[in-house]
Batch of 4 targets.
Target 1
Amino acid sequence: MGAEKKWLYTLFSGAFITFLIFLSFISGLSSSYYYAYPPNKPFPSTIDHGPGRPPSFAYYISGQSGDSDRLFRLLLAVYHPRNRYLLHISADGSDEERVRLVSMVKYVPVIQAFGNVDVIGKPDPNTYMGSTNIAAILRAAATLMKVDGGWDWFVTLSAKDYPLITQDDLAHVFSSIRRDLNFIDHTSDLGWKEGQRIQPIVVDPGIYLARRTQIFHATEKRAMPDSFTVFTGSPWVVLSRSFLEFCVFGWDNLPRTLLMYFTNVVLSQEVYFHTVICNSPEFKNTTVNADLRYFVWDDPPKMEPHVLNTSDYEEMVKSGAAFARQFDKDATVLDMIDRKILKRDRNLATPGAWCRGRKSWWMDPCTQWGDVNAVKPGPQAKKFGESIDKLVDNWNSKSDTCAR
């Protein structure tokens, strides 16, 4: 009997400790964003920002319920110690899934050392075609500005995206361009979108209902605005810090006014930033008309682009794009990109000039690092650089880069 009581005591003690650990995770996740690591931890290598140094990027990587593995894989594919990362599983995901994502992130040695990855603990809804998406992006931008004052560009990615270049490639090419440029596909030629996207009045219930549901339409349409010009384009953007500060802090009322207007527009993420930047005298000539993504659209086009596979690999490589979408989870073509472009093994960060360890089948070269301010571009940097040069040359040739 004594042995049985001792066994029961051990069992309940273990269960109680496990419960306390789980509660500690949940208490962290109840905050507006959850730090995977303490933000004031000393860096193992000095990160320098500013002129003469490579640019840094703030990544907002978002997904839905069931996307934790995809988010983690994408994080490792685009990871660099100089960058900042914010991961978001929307409100339809569970706290247990967020805890699992945090646990995967925290055991990556380099992330543990640099503490530059955060996971949102109080998630935002992600209503399909609704305006909650813009609210989530603006929140992410504000959070990333709060936790890190050094990054230069803000990049939006989803769990269905994947890089076609390394972060050393990206930093190397972007070192040669102005840091106030915004890569945003845009046009004022609305076409069919005017009658089907802009004029219809919709309500996103994700704004005021706890459970996720679909947008619903009002019975009437509204006239097109005449106090500003509506622009539309790709929802995937690479935006400068200075422009996002304008959107978030709003020393001009334009960003707030347009946010209120586009709250009731279908797919507001395809019009909000585009219209703000092209109606702002301060920023309208900082727009490079491209989203730096590789897509393949079906014919006739559907709501989402074609799902990429191994047959698309060669065209992706030749495209000169920085990212591609969309991919199925654990698609074979992702393994090809890891192996041939990123030189990355499964569950390991993409190596760069900062990795100083010796690579072998049993050792991660990025468990040891040197100067994180050094970059070493790979073969894809040349193609990507040529693509950026053409885009910037085209931008330089125009006096009004938001012209129709």
Target 2
Amino acid sequence: MATRIITPQLVGLDVDYGSSVEEVILNLATLVSDAGRARDASKLAAAATERERKAGTGVPGKVAIPHCRSGEVSEPTLAFARLAKPVDFSGPDGDAELVFLIAAPEGGGKAHLKILSKLARSLVKEDFLEALRQAGSKEEIVSLVAGVVEGEKKPHKAEPAAPQADNAGASAVAGAHGNSAASTAPMRIVAITACPTGIAHTYMAADALSQAAGRRDDVELTVETQGSSNDAPIKQSVIDSADAVIFATDVGVRDKERFAGKPVIESGVKRAINEPDVMLDEAIAATQNPRARKVAGVAPGEHKADDEGQGLSLGKKLQQAIMTGVSYMVPFVAAGGLLLALGFLFGGYDMANGWQHIATNYSLTNLPGNTMEIDGATITFDRSGLALYIGSVLFATGQAAMGFIVAALSGFIAYALAGRPGIAPGFVGGAVSVTVGAGFIGGLITGLIAGFIAMWIGSWKTPRWLSSLMPVVIIPLLTSLIVGLLMFLLLGAPLALAMTGLQDWLASLTGSSAVLLGIILGLMMCFDLGGPVNKAAYLFATAGLSTGDEASMQIMAAVMAAGMVPPIALSIATFMRAKLFTPAEQENGKSAWLLGLSFVSEGAIPFAAADPFRVIPAMMAGGAVTGALSMALGVGSRAPHGGIFVFFAIDPVWGYFIAIAAGVVVSALVVIALKQFWPNETIEKAAADKAAADASTGAPV
């Protein structure tokens, strides 16, 4: 480091810095300013005090660590005070005697943030705190801190403590922590720690949990810190083998879906610092509680991330990026589409001829009639008054949401490739795609271009003074400029032509060609049940929904109907021939029908994962039948999601139900036939084990 992070000038020993948190922070900020490391002490103090109001920074050991990022700070700095009069920082052990102010520059370098993190983690060590209390000079304080930040190796994983030499000792440890026997294998727990600034509490919580686990023989803990140091994520294989998860965070957990299906204990980050053993006990208890809260999402193993995040092929990177974009786009589509459907429900279908005029020119105290002048033309509506007005407002809100779908698709594709610096240029590229008429095809292209360009610019070696501007100014600016120029000058016109051609082709589909498209879409929806192929079909359907043309609505209906078939069919099959399914599948079948009715294709994933060669072909057969019938009967849907619960947006609804019923019958019969005449060894073994267990307990077989 060019300069030390703490110097004697930044240390106050046995000082009276006032009786309030604000006074102490201001005095420490003044030390930083007087040392030439901050422009304005009062502004730095204000930033740290504002952070303090969100959550007190008092930690065990009568220590406080107020911290913040501020544009006033020129370089990462530590200011320390050993107070003559302790002050209340909301710590668990009472008023703070030792106070560190951690001041980081806005967008400061990651190497310095790692040093700050090391110090924060050391504050949970009793010997370090005692040395700070006994130090006789400012130079000794500086030496202690330098020894910590330069010599400490940051642990990630706490290995379980060595077994006790005698059974009595081992039992005592197990009993103290709720384990039933010393010989029981340790529970595998994974944990995430994260605080708003990612500097101090993140790493203190990680160390507190790790140290607590290291003293026990009933826990094997792996911690991922989601802080400022960009620590490596936990390997997916470790997550998959974990028994439970701890989220000790004050912010959202990044990539939370990795932990889907795991029992979870959640709290703020300070609780992990103050009560690490209690949280570990709660995690162990959750593994034995079938009603314990679980991380929402698809069960582990269905969508595995690469363990290291490195060495992915270009094709895999592209697939992951596009899937990320689609997953973030879907909420816009679902919310916007359902609002459009509700708008039609209230205002009638002819409301679409004047929704914007009605929503902006009328109010609850000035309701519209059924006839009005719009752009020089007289328009008559079937409905009037409150129903027409509410319908128009809902429709306008839905249109606003749908207006973001291309930008969201593009923005989050770029985000998946380049991280946060890719979001803005990705959104800009998506907006430009809409402007030039390139639609969702343009959104896909601009998202990929923005992501790769942002990655490339981010790899540039820049001077230190410029590095903090790269992610927030330079990368978004240059990438947005390049993407915009490419779209307006080169790519926009041909992509718009391709989009127009696609729309014209869809509009021309009739008879056998429409049925063939329905078959293809049905097969795609049931092939991987929420995977890339399924999402591609859904994206194709939703892309044209906002246009409101008949062909797009028919495609939407076929896709939604086909996606409903697998969970319903498998649920019925488990009731018809329960012996062909494992006990776990029989249990899943009790709720799968509801997921199917709600258009949640993922409800069939547990069945497909356990027996793909029998389940997937059967589901595809039913999906193809449903897609074909839906298109043949001319069924249209104005809603992109909701299953049978948006029946009011489907016409003709009887055709919709016929198509779904036919597909369900086909899939259920085919999967039963395949399992009956092509037995699954896993099922047979499970049945034999159950019969043996019943025989051993005297239960009827």
Target 3
Amino acid sequence: YDETVPYTILSHQWAEQEEKILTSCEQVEKDEFKWLWVDTCCIDKRSSTELSEAINSMYWWYENSGACYAYLHNVPSSFPRLNDKIWYHNSKGWPEWFLCGWTLQEMIAPRNVQFFNRCWESIGNKKMLTHTLLCITGVPPCILVDGLSSNHPCVAQIISWAADRMMTRVEDRAYSLLGLLDINMPMLYGEGRKAFHHLQLEIVCASNDQNIFAWGCGAGSDGRSGSVLANDPRCFWGCDNM
């Protein structure tokens, strides 16, 4: 990827692919960009090497985008300001986009995140929605506005933001946190929850942050398992105020 070439990047859930991509290209033209990066088109998941490289590079790609289009496919009109368990009954009262593990880094990394509803109407941007996003995600406004590098939250706090998020593959509970924690490691699908153990070991080797051992105290945790390593990001629930 050429850092000198401005591009937009799409953050979405995997549904209605062709129509969504075509419409996002139209938005790119309106915003006078020339390039759009979409994971479903730009990553060959048949290649384990390419997939591993992509996952390890994903945060950087989002961080360096000129704009990120966050497509909220189940939002009918304006951005929801209040929890609505009737309309969003399958996603804890908020749009489904906020339940996905991958979209956490896709929200934090880019400087410019534009939200769109299911009709591709603009419904706000990250900077104007910081306090609502705090209510939904637990991520402080200072992180949303200035990014991770300017604020240096502790490891436990970062992982806590992913505690309630969902993944199709259990390994992605760990892999989706790599960029947020500034860690690179190989992918090994099939290792299950060991992936999160491996992530924690990489963090211990790369950082002096002792808060990585502060898990197990929150209401969402499954308690101590006899190991210093947590089994899942849910174990860090309640660590968001560290």
Target 4
Amino acid sequence: MECIACNRRFKSEKALEKHIKYSPAHAPKDYYCSTCNRSFKSEDALEQHLQNSLAHTHTPKGNSKSFKNKAAQKQHAPAHAHSSSKRWSIYPTHHEHVSRLLEEECLHYNFHNVDTAKGCISEYDTNIMGRFTCHNDSCGATGWSSRQIAITIREYNGGKYNARVYHQRCGGCDSLSRPVLDDSYAERVAYRIKKWNGIFMGAPPPYSSKSKGPHHNDLCEGCKDGHCSALSSWNS
């Protein structure tokens, strides 16, 4: 049995039907920003929106919007204020990559869109890698890379999961930044879910806790929330 769209072969018709039903490759491409109530055609388009939209920046760049009076400006401010205090995010746009890795072991999970520990049956803290950008125009820093981005992976009943990714603060101005993640996110999440399902796993995905600079606990929201594995010696 073959899935022509994915160029993959399956041992039985049942396995092929299961693949078509659960694989993100056969799902409608609808990447959604709940903050702005907008949909995007691709993951890249959504990620670009999250990085560049005024509604997701600490200090909006190029915000030339004028207001008739201070009251109008104050009324407009809450649309941007939430991003400056948001300390973590979940990344449903990365589910497709996680799903592909899980399919290697015939595991099929859906993304749990509610960022809560309520109903969670398994939880694990680890670190991943990515890059942050400082959106504060008055700050001289442009951004920084981190190999110790705190993340909490959760499993829920009904074959669901999510992962809370903690933000970090700019060392220059203390503003919060949401990271752009690399492949380590999907690899770490899929690895942990496979282990929870009793699948024998060898060494964890390539990972290095060594970085060009020290990990600053006061700039890491994961450390402040008690969920950063940098607080103790890392283990798989």
